Amino acid sequence: MxxxxxxxxxxxxxxxxxxxxxxxxxxxxxxxxxxxxxxxxFPTILSVVLVIGSLYLMVKPDPEAQWxxxxxTIELLxxxxxxxxxxxxxxxxxxxxSTTLAVGTLSWRMGAPPRKAFITGLLSAVVxxxxxxxxxxxxxxxxxxxxx
Amino acid sequence: METLGYLMDGFAVALTPYNLMFALAGAFLGxxxxxxxxxxxxNGVAILIPLAFTLGLPPETAMILLxxxxxxxxxxxxxxxxxxxxxxxxxxxxxxxxxxxxxxxxRAADALAISAVASFAGGLIGTIGLILLxxxxxxxxxxxxxxxxxxLFILAFATLGGITGKNPMKTVIAATIxxxxxxxxxxxxxxxxxxxxGVLELYEGIDFILAIVGLFAISxxxxxLESRIKSGHKKVNVGKVTLTLKELVSTVPxxxxxxxxxxxxxxxxxxxxxxxxxxxxxLEKQVIGKKGSFGEGDIRGxxxxxxxxxxxxSGALVPMLTLGVPGSGTTAVxxxxxxxxxxxxxxxxxxxxxxxxxGVIAALLIGNVLLLLLNIPMIGVFVRLLSIPxxxxxxxxxxxxxxxxYSISHSTFDLYFMVAFGVAGYFMRKLEIPLVPIxxxxxxxxxxxxxxxxxxxxxxxxxxxxxxxxxxxxxxxxAGLGLVLPVIVGPILRRRMRSAIEEGPVSx
Lengths: 148, 508
Prior knowledge:
The complex is a heterodimer of chains A (148) and B (508).
Chain A: H1 4-25, H2 41-59, H3 71-93, H4 95-109, H5 114-135
Helix pairs in contact in A: 1-2, 3-4, 4-5
Chain B: H1 2-14, H2 17-35, H3 41-54, H4 59-84, H5 95-104, H6 108-141, H7 146-160, H8 168-182, E1 185-186, E2 193-194, H9 208-227, H10 245-250, H11 252-267, H12 272-288, H13 299-315, H14 317-323, H15 329-340, H16 349-352, H17 354-375, H18 379-386, H19 390-409, H20 412-430, H21 436-458, H22 470-503
Antiparallel strand pairs in B: 1-2
Helix pairs in contact in B: 1-17, 2-4, 2-17, 3-4, 3-9, 3-15, 3-19, 4-5, 4-6, 4-13, 4-15, 4-17, 5-6, 5-13, 6-11, 6-13, 6-14, 6-17, 7-21, 7-22, 8-21, 9-19, 9-20, 11-12, 11-13, 12-13, 15-21, 19-20
């Protein structure tokens, strides 16, 4: 079926819009009685607009988007996983080590030779760390490299 | 005359050594951001916001820095257009048409020099236009009530897709998603918790800066991974400038026409810098007619679009500064900076924060001079930086984005959120859901709700107040046109832009 992605997106947005609108109706009436506009008025309008928009997407979708199946999908997933692990390890390992690993891996996956990639990672990590911690006195986590 | 006084005060702000230093740094960074493909101006300015924030810069300095980056990006876009036939940013697309053929004929240095002069002329004309028009528009905007503002916000969203936009329904969806995200957090007027699900980090709402950086920077990284463009390896020989004074003088009318047209396109909602450079180029082609050699390296074909897009860049600041309603992605990001500095954008800014507004305008004038000085002798530096492969550059840019967001709150929670926004941004760009309306929704959502509330309280809950005044009604009508016109005119304009590009014998 053509335009399947748009239809799926439309369905997802429809669920979101209904849930968003429904939650808005559950809030207790604010103290002092309701005036013209309560906390739920604006969200209700938004939910109606999004319902209309999502229905339109499902009825009249654009031509199918080009999805990168195969190897590129894995590359993209790897990149996202690297970013999440980078975030996870930043505080325990410290900025310099985690950045060297993250920038190195990303730039290697983007086609740089591995040795050059990790050297770039290390250099950029050290430069930014020194610049921030000593130049701008904003502390980035030192982690394992902390000297007590 | 009053304006002149304010402008002098503005110069007093912008010419302090501290601010001048940041203007210079911004101009340099901006040119760099503009010339590197894959690092657009909106993206570049967004990454710098958290840094400007954590550096603790005073508001006027922060704004001067970012405006210089913005102006610089418009200069930088031309460099890769001319040398590599790859536009550094979208408005520089038209510069490829005659810039690249000129470079192939061995006149790369001339093309770069004349386009720097044209950028300067365009920027200067645009800034003069801004100085003349902005105070008038700001005074007019003071008569706006809450209902008019509400209609104006609708207008901003409706025209954001631009006249060349593809599917207006997707613009509407994007804007709605953005506004929805902005409703998360504690409601300002009643104190009700909305969509927080008891998560402490959500009480204050979702910080739009991390949303912007995530949507732009992270999704850009993923897009690059997908396309695997390995540009930038080519070593380009620039050569010496052989431009004669006579040639330079002969392009003056082109510069003036391009700058003025660009400025008008920039001010109008829904047009923007890309259309500005397109209109200037096509008009120039018509005016010169058969006497020119457009598409084969005509010098005026480089001058017109460059004057056009720089004029438009200054023009786009008019609605952003006077109404608080930006018309492009980059001006939306500049608005984000203003809001996070706790400055309410809009007409009152001209009276309450006159030093900032006029400081920024003066900085724009100074910035253009700095950029001209920077871009002619130092062009070699930028050309050399252009040959850094994106495989090294983009991971580093991503890392800087992480550092910026981390340094705001020192919490990794925000970083996870940013990555999530990046992944969402990737999918939306794939499905052609525009990102700029989402950002504008995030920024304007709270203001929209506030104005809706005020309008309804003033009218005792009568909804017809929203279109009761002629002005509000007019705004609604233009907003309606903004959604309908692209469906009718869009395909024609898009076809013309495409055929204009294909006509030129640019292929190797």
